[in-house]
Structure formats: C-alpha cells, structure tokens
Design a protein that fits this description.
heterodimer, A: 175 residues, alpha+beta, Translation Initiation Factor Eif1, four-stranded antiparallel beta sheet, two-stranded antiparallel ribbon, 15% strand, rod-shaped, disordered N terminus, B: 301 residues, alpha/beta, seven-stranded mixed beta sheet, two-stranded antiparallel sheet, 31% helix, 12% strand, elongated, Large ribosomal subunit protein mL49 (chain A)
C-alpha cells in the first residue's frame, strides 16, 4: 500500500522506477547491448496474445441465480398435490390457492389450549361458505362448532383443528 | 380565518348548486354547505356496455384467474377537447377491482405521513440547565424548604423532568405486501368512484395551462388532477402546462403513492402506465419471499 502511494507521486516515480530498473531497456543502453531483457517484455520477434474478455463461463454463475416468481403448478406430481379444477365450481363463493398453489387452510394455537382453524382468501358469499362448513363439520364431529366470519379480511375461523378435513373437503369441491 | 374560508368555499358551492337547480327551489343564502360536497354537475359516465363498436385498445398481459373477468373502461384523449372516447381498455381485476380495504388505505396513508417524521423538540434536563451546582441554602435552620439546586424541576427556571428528549425518529416500515395492497386498493377505489381516467398518451396541442384547465372543466374531472406516465421523458407541452398550475400535477409511474392519489381528486393514467402498474403490482402476488434484497439481480427480474 505504501509503495503504491509513493508511486502515485509523479516526482518520485521516475526515481523509484529507475532505481528498481523496471523500465524496458532503451535501445542504446548497456542492458540491450548485453542481450538482456525483462521477462515481462516480449522477445523482438515474438508476438504475445492480447487480453480478451470471455463471457463463455458466465453461464456457470447465471444458472445459480434463483428465480423470483413461483412457477405455475405442474400437472401430475407424486407428492399428493392436486391442482385446482380448470373451471371454477358452481358455488356462490370461491377460495383461491395460496402463492405456492396450496389450499389456504391454516391452524393456530394460542394460550396453549385454544385451537383455531382459519380459512383465508375467500371471495364471494362468505356466509354461504360458513353455512356449508358448519354443516360439513356437524357431519364429521356431531357438534355445532363456533365460527367467526370476518367480512373485511374475508376469512373464516372455526374452533378446533380441522385443517385436514377442510382441505380434503375443499379439494373435492374443486377449489 | 378558517371560518371565513369555509364560508367563502361554501358560497362558491352554493352558487354552483343554485345555477344547476331550478329557479323555484333556490338555496337560501344563510345555508352553509360542507366544502367537500361533490359537484352535482359532474356526470358519471356509464360503464362501457358489452356491445360497443369501439375497439379494445389494450387487453391484459397476464393470464386472469378463471373466475374473474377484466374490468373495462374508456380510453380518452387529451389532444382534442371533444368528449368522445377513443376506445376501451381491459384492466386486471386483481389490481383495479380489489375489495375496498379502507383499513389498509388508512395504514398506508398514516405510514406515509409519519415514517419521514423526525421531531427535533428537546428540552433541558436539570443537569443541562445553566447553573444549579450549589446548594442554595443550608439544609437545616433557615426556615425555608430544603433544596439541593436552583435548577430542579420544582423551581422556576429549572429543568423539565419528563419533556421531549432530543430528535425522535418515528420511522417504521409496513410490510411490502401491505404497501402494495394499499396501492391496489387506492386504484380500485378511484376506478369504482369514477375518478380514474385512462388516456392514450400525454400529447397536447399547446403548452398553454389554460387549455388544460378548460379541458378538465369540460370533462368534469374535478378540482385537482394527478397525471401519471411511465418513462423518463414527458412531452414538453404537458410539462410546461402543468408547471404553472397548482392543482394539476404530473408524476412518473415510479412515484405513484397512496397519499398523492387521495390528495388529488382525479387520476389520469396512460396505457403504458397501466401496463407497468399491472406488471409490478401483480408480481407481488406470485413472488417468493426474498432470499436477498430484490435490488440485487434475480434470474427473471
């Protein structure tokens, strides 16, 4: 670092270079007469190749850069994922898929014992969905479960953990 | 002074109401109308019927969900002051027809107002007030209350015990998706209330601000207009025309924000701006969460 600082001062540069004898020898100098040259200087008849920038190796880095968008869900998958039906089901409500193409049913636990199932991304008549969910869960459990409808955020909350049942039910409906 | 301005504005509205109403039902002179009363002469243009002869100048680029259909609006022109639209355009429902989440709109507006705020209020504490190092009188025997310094908060001229301390920052960031949702809700609300107008391009014949004001008045676009266009360069005429005008402002599409949209009554977008906004705002619905900041390159950005 200190050497580079020194070299920037033009006054000293000539003195340092000449002291280290880094200049190529002038044609009439004793070095040229003795047949000596620096290793870095080319021989009189030799041609050295120029520096060229190659972009052929960029592809090895470019293939590692990740995408930003989630890809569209593929058709047949061995993980058990079911794509939504191409035409929306004929119901007064619609439940969209999440950005990872899954059914938006989630569970929550608060205070250690308060179990809640949340259905998000509902569009259309959310009260019809609530009625259908209550009827379905009455068949499954035999109980009238308390539900909460939020019309502003268009979400439905049900007391208890029923994510597996609700996901299957919504899949069978074609959402 | 506020009351005078209220009376002044109300008088103007009253005059406009009186002129549009019949002579028999004249508004009494001592009636004070609210200042934010919508001008009754502002005609609400009906939505384009499905069987219009006008061409669809632009349809949505991205594929729509199967259960949603695009929203159609008129495309107008600024060149000639006639009221005839040039054609129709299709707008993506996930940007221009989202449910009106007023709570998100409020959140984003308050955030925009407060996140830049730095309050410089600062008071001196008893240690910072000049003087007060010496005990004013002896502890016992003087008959007066005991004190340790003349600058304690009990004293006149003393320090403030719990005052504002130094520059306070009110910076916070709402999640990116909330801010994006705020833009979508604002655009949808403008469209639903007939305050959003699409224009093919921002070319006007003269750089005269009078031409613009007359055009806006004739088309009943409202008191204040926000014009948005994509690109680094705008036509010279519109720049010169909006330079002098206080209520007509022009901004690039990257500068679109909820506060400006709420502040101005009407919003004018070009077809290019619509395409740009749809592309940028819909990307947030399908993107991954960031591995590293989105400013750095990803393979498809």
């Amino acid at each position: 670092m200190s050497v580079s600082v020194c070299l920037r001062c033009s006054g000293l540069r000539g003195a340092v270079w000449s002291a280290l004898r880094l200049r190529p020898p002038a044609p009439g100098s004793p070095c040229a007469a003795a047949g000596l040259r620096l290793f870095s200087a080319p021989a009189p008849g030799e041609t050295r190749p120029s520096i060229e920038e190659s972009t052929a190796e960029y592809k090895f880095v470019e293939r590692l850069i990740p995408p930003s968008k989630v890809r569209h869900g593929a058709g047949k998958v061995s993980t058990g994922w079911v794509p939504p039906s191409p035409s929306p089901p004929d119901l007064p409500y619609m439940i969209r898929r999440s950005r990872m193409h899954n059914i938006p049913v989630y569970t929550d636990v608060t205070h250690g014992n308060r179990l809640i199932t949340i259905v998000r991304k509902v569009e259309g008549d959310i009260w019809a969905l609530e009625k259908d969910v209550k009827a379905f869960l009455k068949d499954v459990t035999g109980k009238d479960l308390p539900t909460q409808v939020n019309e502003v955020t268009m979400t439905l909350k049900v007391k208890g953990h029923f994510d597996r049942e609700l996901k299957e039910w919504l899949l069978n409906k074609g959402f | 002074m506020l009351r005078f301005t209220v009376v002044f504005c109300a008088r103007g509205v009253t005059k406009r109401c009186v002129s549009s109403l019949a002579g028999e039902s004249a508004v009494p002179p001592n009636l004070l109308l609210p200042t934010n009363l919508v001008d009754p002469s502002r005609h609400r243009r009906p939505a384009p019927p499905p069987d219009t002869a006008l061409p669809i100048l632009r349809s949505c680029d991205t594929s729509l969900p199967a259960h949603l259909s695009p929203v159609r609006t008129w495309v107008q022109t600024l060149m000639n002051p006639s009221d005839e639209p040039l054609g129709l355009t299709e707008l993506h429902p996930d940007v221009f027809a989202v449910p009106p989440r007023l709570d998100i709109l409020h959140q984003v507006e308050i955030w925009q107002k407060n996140f830049k705020r730095i309050s410089h209020a600062k008071t001196k504490v008893r240690s910072e007030v000049r003087g007060g190092g010496r005990k004013p009188w002896r502890q016992k025997g003087s008959g007066r209350a005991r004190h340790g310094s003349i600058r304690s908060p009990l004293w006149r001229g003393g320090g403030v015990s719990h005052g504002p301390r130094g520059p306070t920052s009110y910076y916070y960031m709402l999640p990116m998706k909330v801010r994006v949702m705020g833009l979508k809700v604002a655009l949808s609300s403008k469209l639903a209330q007939d305050y959003l107008h699409i224009v093919d391009s921002l070319d006007i014949p003269t750089p005269d601000p009078q031409y613009l004001t007359e055009l806006i008045k004739q088309k009943h676009w409202g008191q204040s207009v926000l014009i948005v266009d994509v690109g680094e360069e705008f036509p010279e005429n519109i720049l010169k025309a909006t330079e002098e005008l206080k209520t007509v402002n022009i901004i690039p599409a990257m500068g679109l924000n909820v506060h400006s949209m709420l502040k101005h009554e009407s919003l004018i977008l070009t077809l290019e701006t619509v395409r740009f906004l749809e592309e940028k705002l819909l990307w947030h619905d399908v993107r991954f969460s960031p591995l590293y900041p989105f400013k750095l390159p990803y393979s498809d950005i």
